[in-house]
Structure formats: C-alpha cells, structure tokens
C-alpha cells in the first residue's frame, strides 16, 4: 500500500486534511472559551437583575442564583459605582483575571491553550460588558474546572468530526486519483512492458489516447521513442546480416587476392615493357584490396580485445610506423617529421596503439599521394599532468565533405577517395578501449590534423 502512488497520496491527503483541521481547531477552541465565559457573564447579569428587582432575597435564593450562573461573585458597575451584587465564599485565591472587552484574537487563543493544557483547578476573575447596556461592566469569579471539561468535550467532538471529514475526503481523492491518474499511468506501463517483450514488432508501439494533456504528451513522446527504436533495431538487424555476408565475402576474396599476389610476383619479373609498366599498379591495387578485406574482417568481429596496458616508449612505435610508410611512398614527394621525445612513455597496448597511428599516417599519405602534390606528415607528442597528446598532421588537400559528416562511421566516412572508413572507425574504437579519445582538430586546404588523447589516471580514481 505504501509503495503505490495512490496509497501514498491517500496518506498525504489524510495528513494535510488533519493539519488543516488542527489549524481550524485552535481558533475554534478559543472561540468556544470566549462564548462560554460570555454566557456565564450573561447568567450572572440575569441573576443580579433579580436582586435589583427585590433588594431583600433570602440567602438560599442568592446561593441558588450563583449556582445556576456557575459563579462565586457578581460585581456590577452602574453609574460609576462598583457594587457587589451577589457573593459567596471563594474556595481558593483568584489565580488570574481575564478582560473580554476588546480582547485581541491572539490573546484569546493564548489564554484558551493555557487553560486547555493546565489540569490544575483555579478560580479566575472575568470582566466583560453587560448585555443591553445594563451598566458599565460586569465582573464575575468562577472555577476553571467546568470550563476546561467543556473545552475538552468540545475539542474531542471537533477532532472526531475532523477525522470523519478527512477520511471521507481522502477516500474520494483516492478513488479520483486511481481513476484519473493511476489507471492511465498503469496503462502506459503495460504498453511499455508489452513493447519491451518484442520491440521489433511495430504493432506494439503505443497509440496515444489519453485525454489528459500531460499524460498524452508522455504517450506521444513514448510513441516517438518506440518508433525510432524499432526502426533502429530493424536497421541494426539488416546491418548485422549485411556485415555477416560482407565478412564471408571478404574472407574468401582475401584468399583469392592472396593467390593473385603470388602471380603478380612472377609478372614483375617479366621483360615485357608493357607488363613492367602495368605490374606495379596491379600490385598496388591487389594490396589495397587485401587491406580492405582484412579491415572488414577485423571490424566484423564482435569486439576488439581489451588492451593490455603497459609502459611503452612512444618514439619506438612512431618510428616503426614511419619506416613502414616510407616504403610505400614510391615516387611521391612525401616527407615525415617526428617530434616525439625519446624518453616519453605512455600507458597503452603497444600493438593497438601502433594500429591507430598507422591508420592515421596511412590515410595522410594516401591523401597527399592522390593530390599529386608534395607534402609532409608530422607526428608530435607531448604530455601534461592528466594526459598524453599525440597529434598527426599533414599538408594534404583536407577531408571530403562526406568524410567530415560521417567521419567515424564504418563504410561511410572514408578519408581518402575509394576508402571504406573502417580505418578511422577501428582507430576510434581502440582509443576508446584505452579510455581516451580520437578527434579531428581541423581540416581544410592547408591540411588535416587528428589528435589522440590518452588519460594518465586509472578509471575510477
């Protein structure tokens, strides 16, 4: 019960209604006390009028008048003269005096609360205005015990009535909340659970029907999210099927291309001028195709293995990459610049970091080579208190527009003409595995620059 929205709302409603009743109870008790004292003043005045009508009354009659008025003494001031009209012995000294003439509300409330919580009986003096201007003032003395008992009885009746009202109100609000709020929310929850059972089934997408504006907005937002998720799941399934097919084709194609490479080695030994001229291009084409197949197969794996982190000299890795790429420059005028301190060590998987830098440097070399212009590829490394930074820059023609829009998207963000975009996607995945980031710093006619950021701290510290 307490764990449900309607149950908690019921409890809060009871609490708030009772709090409101308490705020009403305090001035009500004060008003009851004031009316009680005024009624005793009126009774005492009536008793004194009987005395004025007949100056000679017996002690028994005087006692009866005081007993009916529930007072000990009655003093009436008429014509500036203070006159003791009725009197009887006081059982104890007067404890306090209360003047009801023009008494402020706060004072009446304070006196009522003090009287209610004081169990000791007292004799008090009460002063008020006579009714119908029958004098200047009237003053009585009386016991507080009957007054307190009357206040307690009145307070209990008020509290009982408050409890009944709060319970009735709470039940009505409870039913209203269940019908107009909880029930529609449960309906949305059931739709969500039904959709979660098979999110690829478009029939399970919620149809907004609520008449409440806020709830309908929630249903519409949920329907939009479910529609997008269903479409994404279907697209993911299609891509998974396509990826499996491409991986199979790439595997067989790589084997065939590997065999073709063996034949090209023999073709290069031919003395035919035309063969000599075309053989290098054929070799390059087959080599690129083999690399594409290998990249496709690598990306098609479920995930890259977790990096085996260790301290490695970054200069050694960069040197290996540059030496490998220099062999692929051929007749193009491409130079390499290495600005990596020989003592700089990074925490990384040496093999995976080599693949990342190799992909970036190779993309830069291919971009410069395709432009037909001379160019330079520079690799710069530095560190600060929290990270290592590796920047690979080139003076090539910059990335195409499509590559910038889908930079790290497989099969869409090729950085060079005819590229698949797998190199950058794989590089980003490997760097993320290190807890770092790979980002494009800038690209344009003056060249392109990528930055690798590797954290020095350990995750969770």
Automatic annotation (TrEMBL):
Histidine kinase domain sequence ranges: 248-458
EC number in record: 2.7.13.3
PROSITE patterns: HIS_KIN (PS50109)
Enzyme class: transferase
GO molecular function, one term: ATP binding
Residue intervals passing through the bilayer: 6-30, 158-181
Alphabetically ordered keywords of this record: ATP-binding, Kinase, Membrane, Nucleotide-binding, Phosphoprotein, Transferase, Transmembrane, Transmembrane helix, Two-component regulatory system
Species of the source: Thalassobius vesicularis
Protein name, UniProt field: histidine kinase
Domain of life where this protein originates: Bacteria
Cited InterPro entries: HATPase_C_sf, HATPase_dom, His_kinase_dom, HisK_dim/P_dom, HisK_dim/P_sf, Sig_transdc_His_kin-like_C
Reactions that this protein is recorded to catalyse: ATP + protein L-histidine = ADP + protein N-phospho-L-histidine
A Pfam short name: HisKA
């Amino acid at each position: 019960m307490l764990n449900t929205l309607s149950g908690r709302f019921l409890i809060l409603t009871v609490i708030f209604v009772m709090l409101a009743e308490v705020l009403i109870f305090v001035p009500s008790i004060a008003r009851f006390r004031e009316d009680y004292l005024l009624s005793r003043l009126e009774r005492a005045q009536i008793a004194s009028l009987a005395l004025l009508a007949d100056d000679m009354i017996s002690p028994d009659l005087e006692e009866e008048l005081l007993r009916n008025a529930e007072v000990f003494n009655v003093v009436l001031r008429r014509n500036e003269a203070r006159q003791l009209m009725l009197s009887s012995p006081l059982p104890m000294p007067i404890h306090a005096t209360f003047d009801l003439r023009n008494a402020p509300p706060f004072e009446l409330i304070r006196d009522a609360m003090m009287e209610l919580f004081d169990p000791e009986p007292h004799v008090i003096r009460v002063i008020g205005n006579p009714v119908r201007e029958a004098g200047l003032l009237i003053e009585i003395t009386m016991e507080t015990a009957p007054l307190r008992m009357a206040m307690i009885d009145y307070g209990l009746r008020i509290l009982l009535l408050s409890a009944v009202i709060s319970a009735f109100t709470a039940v009505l609000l409870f039913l209203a909340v269940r019908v107009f709020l909880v029930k529609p929310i449960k309906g949305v929850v059931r739709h969500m659970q039904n959709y979660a059972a098979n999110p690829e089934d478009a029939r399970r997408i919620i149809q907004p029907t609520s008449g409440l504006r806020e709830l309908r907005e929630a249903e519409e937002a949920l329907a939009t999210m479910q529609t997008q998720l269903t479409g994404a799941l279907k697209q993911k399934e299609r891509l998974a099927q396509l990826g499996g097919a491409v991986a199979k084709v790439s595997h067989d194609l790589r084997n065939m291309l590997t065999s073709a490479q063996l034949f090209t080695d023999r073709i290069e030994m031919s003395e035919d001028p035309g063969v000599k001229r075309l053989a290098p291009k054929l070799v390059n084409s087959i080599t690129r195709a083999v690399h594409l197949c290998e990249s496709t197969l690598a990306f098609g794996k479920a995930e890259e293995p977790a990096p085996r982190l260790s301290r490695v000299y970054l200069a050694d890795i960069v040197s290996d990459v540059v030496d490998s790429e220099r062999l692929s420059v051929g007749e193009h005028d491409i130079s390499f610049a290495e600005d990596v301190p020989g003592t700089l060590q990074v925490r990384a998987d040496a093999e995976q970091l080599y693949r990342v830098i190799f992909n970036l440097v190779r993309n830069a070399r291919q971009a410069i080579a395709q432009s037909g212009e001379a160019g330079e590829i520079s690799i710069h490394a530095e560190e600060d208190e929290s990270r290592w930074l590796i920047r690979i820059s080139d003076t090539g023609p910059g990335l195409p527009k499509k590559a910038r829009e889908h930079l790290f998207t497989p099969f869409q963000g090729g950085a060079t003409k005819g590229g698949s975009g797998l190199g950058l996607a794989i590089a980003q995945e490997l760097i993320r595995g290190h807890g770092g980031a790979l980002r494009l710093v800038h690209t344009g006619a003056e060249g392109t620059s990528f930055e690798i950021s590797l954290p020095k701290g350990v995750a969770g510290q």
